[in-house]
């Protein structure tokens, strides 16, 4: 039975409610301002003191999204009510996260996978936040305007970079492509394609002249930069997105506002930006030469898409072939989030190794992305994870399509937002066939933001109309004190988690970058200290342990190097360079018998890298197993049958095993291939000595001395030969030359006494 509150009680309740309402409005304002701030920060942030352009952006995403989620939870705690819009997205979203979580427990590097999964969780939670807090078209339009204006800044910086003016520290250059603040041509193209589509989509509904002028300028500048990125995936994605916009407006088509006309104007004007800039300031080339070079490069780039030997296409064909083999082995549950690069190296054939090495010009570069978003998800989360993700994406697109179909003649802001967001989402998904945009924090944040706005605006539109049966809220709970407190604590927790993870990413990579710098200028001790600091922040990153092991190995700290490299190879068991370093560390640490296992695996993972065989042969030799050492060199020769280094090594190994006849055959084969190699002649001389072929030994050693006069070993061989032939004077001349080159040579000192006695005896 209720009671009516007295006037004093009502006044007290009202006075208590006023501060709460103030806090609620403040939190709502922070949310509304925080999302555009996230757009600005993740896009424009660029710090030169990191190894990768994505690192500061990743840290910003963790921190900013964590802060926004904390504000949202605080708002729920203040309002005392948890409301989530009914949506078809929750089920596939939960299934996808559940599958990813399950696969994480079977992942090799759980902590690395956990960081990747947490970023995905953060972005999907951000997506849910946008759905439930940006139902007002005005607020959504403000976010899109922010993306467009930031896109104008990004494209302007890129055009200036292309012409030699760097207002920000220049990221690592990729050919002649301006990277602006995004560090990779494909990521630049992805961001620009979104901006272009939003600009074209917003143009028809803006009524003010200055707004249309600003959008037109943005369109021209961003399209100019898009051409310069040379990203064929970006060009294709933009074209598909424009087609979506055209189809979205086909019933309300007007030439004055049509995307078609806008595209024509942009196509005519975009190159003019470059020409004007060139004429006004740069002037290195004539206008026609400048324009002609840009046009030719773009046409050649487009036509090269049909050439099998094109670098980008060849690279992707090799990586995709490796990925398909990985998927075949882990089809159902995948290898776990963030673990793709740990398993991929074990699935490359020798043929693809050869093709990759030729493609890279001999450089060692391991692929760590599939260059296809869907293949990578399939590899990491299995068929169930991919199915859930496609379900989620398909549902998102279906919502936009359903709204456009039912509101075909509507030219409202809501429709413009929907068509623009839908076009941006479709373009991203098309581009993801050839890239990994959703792995880039900037691209991923914008993708889920567009998806959230598309759903939110449509929910807001539905709510103004009559609600269909079964619609409404997925969750509508009035919170008691305990739940309010829990929401408040949850707000603090997500802010702290986001801040800490973001900070750990930043600090770990910052110290890693400093370590690389110190190592590059020849300060291994300082580098070791920096790498240890990096490990303290992110102990699960195998690269940090690998570099720590490398500098310790070079500094002669073999025990410390072994420890670091054991940790690195435990985190990434298919990392051939780290396995080779571990084998060397074990060898120099007096544990050569243990070096065999990692070196064998390194040779299997990267059969064309000769260092693995060299150190493996050394390990076998150290334990007296010349037979296995010989077999190791034979294994290497199977991949490179005419390699000079391998032939020489095999010949020497036969000689050490006292198989002199076989050694002669191998070394003579090497001599036929490279007759001017002094090392071959010297080794042949030593082998002839072992066989007692004195005359041939003398000829070979003299030839070796002629070809390599600074090499003391051949002169020592001649001294020993002449000593055996009782030619003391000739032996003495060779030893004199040795002492000039190496005054403290112990073998020469020993031989000098024997030669002196022989000369004295001959004089008596």
Provide a compact summary of the structure.
With 764 residues, the protein is an all-alpha fold. It is built from 31 helices and 2 strands. A two-stranded antiparallel sheet has the order 1-2.
Question: Main attributes?
Answer:
764 residues, mainly alpha, Serine Threonine Protein Phosphatase 5, Tetratricopeptide repeat
Number of strands: 2
Shape: elongated
From the alpha carbons, calculate the radius of gyration and give it in angstroms: 34 Å
Mean pLDDT, as a whole number?
A: 87
Structural class: mainly alpha
The largest sheet, given as strand count, sense and whether it forms a barrel, is: 2 strands, antiparallel
Intertermini distance = 136 Å
Helix amount, in percent? over 70%
Widest sheet, order of strands: 1-2
* Stretches with pLDDT under 50, minimum 5 residues: 252-257, 277-284, 465-471
Total helical elements: 31
Question: Strand content of the residues, in percent?
Answer: under 5%
Molecular structure report:
Strands 1-2 form a two-stranded antiparallel sheet. The protein is elongated, with a radius of gyration of 34 Å. Among the domains are: 21-79 and 480-538; 134-306 and 434-439, no CATH class; 541-641, Tetratricopeptide repeat domain (Serine Threonine Protein Phosphatase 5, Tetratricopeptide repeat, Alpha Horseshoe), CATH 1.25.40.10; 653-708, Serine Threonine Protein Phosphatase 5, Tetratricopeptide repeat (Alpha Horseshoe), CATH 1.25.40; 720-764. It is mostly helical and 764 residues long. The chain has helices at 7-44, 54-79, 90-105, 110-133, 137-162, 185-202, 209-229, 232-248, 259-282, 287-303, 311-329, 340-343, 350-359, 373-406, 413-431, 441-464, 481-520, 524-537, 542-554, 558-571, 576-588, 592-605, 610-622, 626-639, 644-656, 660-673, 678-691, 694-707, 712-724, 728-741, 746-763, and strands at residues 81-85, 473-478. It contains 31 helices and two strands.
């Amino acid at each position: 039975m209720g009671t009516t509150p007295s006037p004093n009680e009502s006044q007290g309740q009202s006075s208590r409610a006023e501060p709460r309402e103030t806090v609620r409005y403040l939190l709502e304002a922070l949310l509304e301002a925080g999302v555009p701030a996230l757009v600005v920060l993740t896009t424009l942030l660029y710090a030169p003191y990191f190894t990768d352009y994505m690192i500061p952006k990743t840290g910003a995403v963790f921190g900013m999204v964590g802060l926004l989620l904390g504000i949202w939870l605080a708002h729920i705690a203040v309002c005392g009510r948890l409301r989530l819009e009914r949506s078809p997205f929750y089920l596939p979203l939960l299934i996808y996260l559940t599958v990813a979580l399950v696969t994480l427990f079977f992942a090799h590097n759980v902590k690395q996978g956990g960081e990747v999964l947490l970023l995905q969780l953060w972005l999907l939670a951000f997506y849910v936040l946008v759905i439930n807090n940006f139902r007002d078209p005005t607020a959504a339009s403000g976010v899109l305007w922010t993306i467009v204006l930031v896109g104008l800044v990004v494209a302007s910086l890129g055009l200036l970079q292309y012409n030699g003016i760097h207002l920000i520290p220049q990221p690592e250059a990729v050919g002649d492509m301006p990277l602006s603040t995004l560090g990779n041509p494909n990521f630049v193209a992805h961001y620009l394609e979104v901006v272009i589509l939003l600009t074209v989509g917003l143009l028809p509904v803006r009524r003010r002249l200055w707004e249309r002028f600003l959008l037109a300028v943005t369109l021209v500048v961003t399209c100019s930069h898009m051409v310069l990125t040379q990203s064929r995936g970006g060009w294709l994605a933009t074209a598909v997105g424009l087609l979506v916009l055209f189809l979205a407006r086909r019933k309300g088509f007007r030439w004055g506002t049509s995307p078609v006309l806008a595209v024509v104007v942009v196509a005519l004007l975009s190159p003019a930006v470059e020409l004007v800039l060139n004429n006004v300031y740069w002037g290195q080339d004539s206008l026609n030469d400048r324009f002609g070079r840009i046009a030719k490069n773009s046409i050649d780039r487009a036509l090269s898409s049909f050439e099998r030997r094109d670098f980008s296409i060849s690279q992707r064909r090799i990586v995709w072939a490796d990925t398909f083999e990985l998927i075949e082995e882990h089809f159902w549950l995948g290898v776990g989030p963030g673990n793709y690069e740990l398993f991929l190296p074990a699935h490359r054939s020798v043929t693809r190794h050869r093709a990759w090495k030729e493609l890279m010009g001999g450089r060692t570069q391991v692929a760590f992305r599939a260059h296809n978003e869907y293949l990578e998800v399939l590899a990491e989360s299995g068929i169930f994870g991919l199915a859930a993700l496609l379900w989620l994406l398909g549902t998102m697109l279906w919502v936009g399509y359903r709204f456009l179909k039912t509101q075909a003649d509507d030219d409202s802001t809501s429709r413009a937002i929907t068509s623009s967001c839908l076009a941006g989402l479709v373009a991203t998904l098309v581009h993801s066939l050839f890239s990994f945009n959703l792995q880039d924090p900037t691209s991923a944040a914008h993708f889920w933001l567009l998806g959230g706005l598309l759903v939110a605006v449509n929910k807001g539109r539905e709510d103004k109309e009559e609600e269909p049966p079964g619609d409404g809220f997925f969750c509508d709970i009035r919170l008691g004190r305990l739940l309010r407190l829990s929401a408040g604590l949850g707000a603090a927790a997500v802010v702290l988690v986001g801040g800490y993870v973001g900070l750990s990413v930043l600090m770990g990579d910052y110290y890693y970058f400093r370590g690389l710098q110190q190592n590059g200028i020849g300060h291994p001790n300082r580098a070791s200290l920096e790498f240890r600091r990096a490990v303290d922040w992110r102990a699960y990153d195998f690269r940090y342990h690998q570099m720590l092991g490398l500098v310790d190995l070079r500094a002669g700290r073999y025990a410390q190097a072994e420890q670091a490299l054991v940790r690195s190879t435990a985190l990434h068991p298919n990392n051939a360079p780290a396995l080779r370093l571990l084998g060397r560390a074990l060898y120099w640490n007096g544990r050569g018998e243990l070096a065999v296992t990692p070196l064998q695996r390194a040779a299997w993972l990267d059969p064309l890298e000769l260092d693995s065989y060299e150190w493996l042969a050394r390990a076998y030799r150290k334990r007296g197993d010349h037979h296995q050492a010989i077999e190791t060199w034979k294994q290497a020769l199977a991949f490179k049958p005419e390699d000079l280094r391998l032939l020489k090594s095999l010949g020497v190994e036969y000689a050490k095993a006292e198989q002199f006849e076989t050694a002669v055959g191998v070394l003579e084969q090497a001599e036929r291939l490279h007759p001017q190699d002094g090392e071959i002649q010297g080794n042949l001389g030593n082998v002839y000595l072992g066989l007692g072929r004195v005359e041939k030994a003398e000829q070979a050693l003299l030839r070796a001395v002629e070809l390599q006069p600074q090499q003391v070993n051949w002169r020592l061989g001649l001294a020993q030969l002449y000593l055996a032939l009782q030619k003391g004077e000739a032996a003495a001349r060779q030893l004199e030359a040795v002492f000039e080159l190496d005054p403290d040579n112990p073998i020469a000192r020993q031989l000098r006494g024997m030669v002196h006695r022989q000369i004295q005896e001959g004089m008596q």
